[in-house]
Write a structure and sequence with these properties.
By secondary structure, this protein is an alpha/beta fold. It contains 16 helices and 15 strands. The strands form 4 sheets. It has an 8-stranded parallel sheet with strand order 4-13-12-11-10-9-6-5. Helix 11 packs antiparallel against helix 14. The longest helix has 27 residues. The radius of gyration is 20 Å and the shape is globular.
Length: about 375
Amino acid sequence: MKIKYELLHQDEHCKARHGLLHTNHGTVETPMFMPVGTQATVKTMNPEELIDINSGVILANTYHLWLRPGQDLIERAGGLHKFMNWQGPILTDSGGFQVFSLARKKDIVEEGVTFKSHINGERLFLTPELSIEIQNKLDSDIAMSFDECPPYPVTHEYMKNSIERTLRWARRGKDAHQNERQSLFGIVQGGEFPDLRKYSAQETVKMNFDGYSIGGVSVGEDRETKYRMVDYAIPYLPEDKPRYLMGVGEPLDLLEGIERGIDMFDCVLPTRLARHANASTRHGKINLKNAKYREDFTPLEHDCDCYACKHYTKAYIRHLIIAGEVLGGRLLSIHNLRFLIRMTEEIRKAIDENRFLEYKEQFVANYTNRDFKDR
């Protein structure tokens, strides 16, 4: 079946909404944060740990899986769910973001994009049709259209031409889509230009995708510009389909997105922070390499229900990190992902009780309380 979005409740004071996303691999609640499993694995974590932190949808990356181990091998394995032993929903991105970070502007043509493999330097060519074919074989629950993700900033003229090409690619990808079990999302671009965001959203919606993403954010713009990009697109997206803000995982950005009506978020930030010894807390990020945690025998966060906080102290995790033990990063990954997922659980409850704005105000006050963090 195709995914189906079901609205349960919208906060009376803003656009924040609590819903259900029905998929072939279970029903998950929104707003949600989706852990990123780029190469068919969320870094350092196994599926049982992802279940334990109440993960819903997780992501995998079309570009990386195309290069290694290849979509044909994964298809022979029975699809991505069986290959990686994950029974929940999976979203695959189109590979476009990675391709455009490797390509030069002159290598982006109407047919597709030429670029060099980051693994061995081999010249490769990716088209909208091939991106969709790969995702069809991966057999994810949700596939993404192949689009151009322009850098920031660009001129209005460049962005207009890019949008027109992305719309043509979206149509080509939709025509090529053959997996009836798999849903397909369209992606709205337009940079910081309100007229182009509106145009991109309206034209993409005309193609009747199963859900819609707002792309081209978190690519170097300041925070207020990022929020305006969402504001420019949201009014033109249908209320009966899910809305996905791509590549966003900073807690304050989740709050702003949810207030504007966003349902889905993803980002590599939680596991990347973990690999650099950082833990997310209600009062901002802390770095476990800091000497003040050497004899701190308290959990990363007192009220956290994750495995790391229930069983280990800051002092022990710091020891693991300083000693170069992999377990330190694993425990921080578990905590950081659970932090964002638990945050969305609390937000859904706040929406149901029409107090999302109150929750947001309190969260921001705690998270930005520099005096607390410096104690």
